[in-house]
Amino acid sequence: MSNLLFVLCAALIGAGIAGVLLRRNILKMIIALSVIDYGVNMFIITRGYVDACTAPIMPIPDGACMVDPIPQALTLTSIVIGASVTALALSLAIGIYKNRGTLEVKGIEK
Questions:
Q1: Beta-carbon count within 10 A of 43 CB
Q2: Peptide bond before 59: cis, by omega within 30 degrees of 0?
């Protein structure tokens, strides 16, 4: 099952990279960057998952298997950073559209 999740993570990241490289519309590129972010977050969570273990919440039972909380904290931080970067990119796209009248890369260069 975990190999299937890793393949899905790689597929999301690959689809996002393909979207950034192949699309010429800024909004589609921003969406592709978000897809990459989702794939990376899913990969971090998948790597941190331990089957049949519990969250490290006090009190800890004797001999209990605990999950490492670091991947969860990193993913939460990554989600906040990703949302901020997406908001900034969208605000820049709005500014570009107001100045140039288009979101196509070729139209912006002219």
A1: 19
A2: yes
Q: How far is 13 from 37, CA to CA, in rounded Å?
A: 8
The total number of residues written for the chain in this structure = 110
Q: Measured on CA atoms in the order 50, 3, 73, 70, is the torsion positive or negative? A: positive
Is the pLDDT at 1 greater than 70? The verdict is: no
Express each pLDDT in 12-70 by its tens digit: 999 999 999 999 999 999 999 999 999 999 999 988 888 878 777 777 777 778 888 88
Give the other-Cβ count within 10 Å of 74's Cβ. Answer: 16
Q: Residue 66: what pLDDT? A: 84
CATH topology classification for 2-53+67-109: Helix Hairpins (1.10.287)
Single-letter code of the amino acid located at 105: V
Count Cβ atoms within 10 A of the Cβ of residue 29 and give its class: 0-12 exposed, 13-18 middle, 19 or more buried. Answer: buried
Q: Taking the model in full, what pTM does it have?
A: 0.85
Task: Tell me if 43 sits within 8 A of 37, measured CB to CB.
Answer: no
